[in-house]
Amino acid sequence: MTPSTTRAAVLRAFGRPQTIEEVGLRPPGAGEVRVRMLAAGVCHSDVGQAAGEWSHPLPVVLGHEGAAIVEAVGAGVRIPVGTRVILNLAPGCGACSHCHGGSPIRCQASLAAMGEGRLTTGPTPIEGKDGPVAAYSLLSCFAEHAVVAARSLIPIAPDVPADVAALVGCAVITGVGAAIATIDVPAGSRGAIIGAGGVGVNAIQGARIRGASEILALDPSEERRELALRFGATAVVDSRDSDVVDILRSKAASDGLDWTIVTVGNADAIGLGVELLRPGGVAAIVGLAPEGVPVPIDALGLVTYERRIVGSAYGSAAPPILIPRILDLYRSGALLLDELVSHRFPLEGVNEAFALSERAGGLRAVIEL
Predict the structure, then answer these.
(1) pLDDT digits (tens, 9 = 90+) for 351-369
(2) Where are the alpha helices (DSSP H) in the chain?
(3) Are 98 and 88 spatial neighbours (Cβ–Cβ below 8 Å)?
(4) Rounded Cα distance, 273 and 188, in Å
């Protein structure tokens, strides 16, 4: 199988626009496939990475939220050509204790490959005009084609639209999973989602599905607060309203929340997620704070109130198990997923889509390929 070329959005310097370039793509090796991308969601993590909030090899093709169709397979792969798939950024190695325990997102081999800009199955498949181009999150979805590990594929039926499938690959599994897997929100409980963007509204939906009696959504955007109500929030608060936030804080010790889910990578928001908890409450932290940014936590309140803080990555469950469950909920009407797509852009509009996400416009922009 000879190497091919494709068009991709390449980030060559943090804080600079991506450029649409023709890049080389090596053939899929053992345990790998080449896919034709159908749609890719713009996650705020992509935006933060482009801004340099976390270290990563450059140049790089970003994008970790995608739907595609299989075009070619490498040795040992039994997935038929033509299969429609969701791309999964937590394939795991399949051999470590984390993978065997159903938590491939914790797989250290995958995390090492991710940090080095390569695949779990081999080196980066992308070649630019000046040398190798790093893969992002084991996928690199902002391209017309990609080579990925076969373990990254979740086959889907033709009835799932490509834009919906793409968002299931990160925003949906992360938000819904935080509620139904990380916390396992109890029926009748009271909680809050801090940040009502693409991940936040899915956390709201997960809590609604689990039967929470009160779901408070905090966000500075009026548009997103209104959308939060549509997705299942029972009340909303402008997170910039210090009077209301202080009232919530003052009630925590006697009448605080059973749980909070923080979907924004902001130190103050993470601190607030802990402060709003009742004694014995749990805060799930989903949002990624910039590298090296400390988060102040009141250690006295944490200990004396026996509050708990847990990290929640990619839904805290094995994607091959959780994603089909999510799609069944979508088909039944319990999960609103078509409504997540607020803007659509061609590949050439990737920088415009990033700017929209940076200013918290809409819920989710999708790059259509």
Answers:
(1) 999 999 999 888 999 999 9
(2) 44-50, 97-100, 108-116, 162-167, 173-177, 198-209, 222-231, 242-250, 252-255, 267-275, 299-304, 319-332, 350-358
(3) no
(4) 19
Which pLDDT score, from 0 to 100, does residue 78 have?
95
Residue 26 tokens, joined: 């090596």
255 SS3 class:
helix
CATH fold label, 4-169+316-368: Quinone Oxidoreductase; Chain A, domain 1 (3.90.180)
Please state the domain extents for the chain: 4-169+316-368, 184-311
Max distance between CA atoms of the chain, in angstroms, equals 67
This model's pTM is above 0.90: yes
Cβ atoms 250, 228 nearer than 8 A: no
How many Å apart are CA 241 and CA 72, to the nearest integer? 53
pLDDT in tens, 97-151: 999 999 999 999 999 999 999 999 999 999 999 999 999 999 999 999 999 999 9
Residue 41's DSSP bridge partners are: 366
Tell me phi and psi for residue 228, to 5 degrees. -60, -40
Buried b (16+ CB within 10 A) or exposed e, 206-243: bbbbbebeebbbbbebeebbebbeebbbbebbebeeee
**Per-residue b/e over 328-344, b at no fewer than 16 CB within 10 Å?**
ebbeeeebbbeebbebe
Element (DSSP H or E) covering residue 52: none
CATH 3.40.50.150 fits 184-311, yes or no: no
Render 181-225 in DSSP notation, one character per residue.
IIS-PPTT-EEEEE--SHHHHHHHHHHHHTT-SEEEEE-S-HHHH
Strand, helix or coil at 279?
A: strand
